[in-house]
Automatic annotation (TrEMBL):
It comes from Clostridium tagluense. Belongs to the MotB family. PROSITE patterns: OMPA_2. Keywords: Cell membrane, Membrane, Transmembrane, Transmembrane helix. This is Chemotaxis protein MotB. It is a single-pass membrane protein. The keyword Transmembrane applies. One of its GO terms (cellular component) is plasma membrane. The gene is motB_1.
Length: 244
């Protein structure tokens, strides 16, 4: 009787192997199915495998973290953003704007940036407008007058961009942030062209961006204040640079 009990225990102990084998088979089938849906670059897969082997065996060489599946040249972790060399026109404009802003002592009022389009003079919305409004406040006009003097010396096209934060607006004047950002950009444009009599109005245009081009996440009031802004873009052009 004792032997029968022991034999029964052994049978019950080994029973889990069947369930385990079935589970492994199903997992293998699942991964084979996933693999069949994917496309693998054989050369990159071989290089990744080689790099992984080097790391595991302690050999020197290219680390797996130094391999980029896109081109195999730059790190996957902390990958640097691609950079472009500013055009000569952009560099010249940036230096001129920077020098002008320093002379006018506007460093605490405006921010100067550049991108592939040209040079940007960025003004916070609270400097130009009251909350939820698009009328230019009188205290900001000396700043706009200074910027008007600067752009009067440049032949480049000027684009006025209106930006808001992500909080929705709905009042008797503006139904949404598109309308608010459009009105703000247009009022700054009209101030330069109509009030200050810019001689070549055809080179000016205004753009409404609403909340869709934030410079920081709209997660708190400090960030939202940074996103509420008007950009005065001085468009760079190599053709114009060659005319000088």
């Amino acid at each position: 009787m004792s032997r029968k009990k022991n034999g029964g225990d052994e049978m019950r102990t080994d029973a889990w192997l069947a369930t385990f084998a079935d589970t492994m088979t199903l997992l293998l089938t699942f991964f084979v199915l996933l693999y069949s849906f994917s496309t693998v670059d054989a050369a990159k897969f071989k290089q990744i495998a080689s790099s992984l082997q080097s790391v595991l065996t302690g050999e020197t060489g290219t680390s797996i973290l130094e391999f980029n599946v896109k081109n195999g040249e730059v790190p996957l972790v902390g990958e640097p953003m691609p950079t472009t060399t500013p055009s000569k026109d952009t560099q010249d404009i940036y230096e001129k704007v920077q020098s002008f802003i320093k002379k006018q002592k506007l460093e605490g009022t405006v921010v100067i940036k550049s991108d592939s389009r040209g040079v940007i003079i960025q003004l916070k919305a609270n400097i130009l407008f009251q909350s939820g409004k698009a009328e230019i406040i009188d205290n900001s006009k000396p700043v706009l007058n200074s910027i008007n003097g600067l752009i009067s010396t440049l032949p480049n096209d000027i684009v006025i961009e209106g930006h808001t934060d992500s909080l929705p607006i709905s009042n008797f004047e503006y139904k949404n942030n598109w309308q608010l950002s459009s009105a703000r950009a247009l009022n700054v444009l009209e101030y330069f062209v109509t009030v200050k009599k810019q001689p070549y109005p055809a080179r000016f245009k205004s753009i409404a961006c609403a909340e869709y081009q934030p410079i920081v996440p709209n997660i708190n009031e400090t960030n939202r204040a940074l996103n509420r802004r008007v950009n005065i873009l001085i468009v760079a052009s190599e053709k114009e640079a060659t005319k000088k």
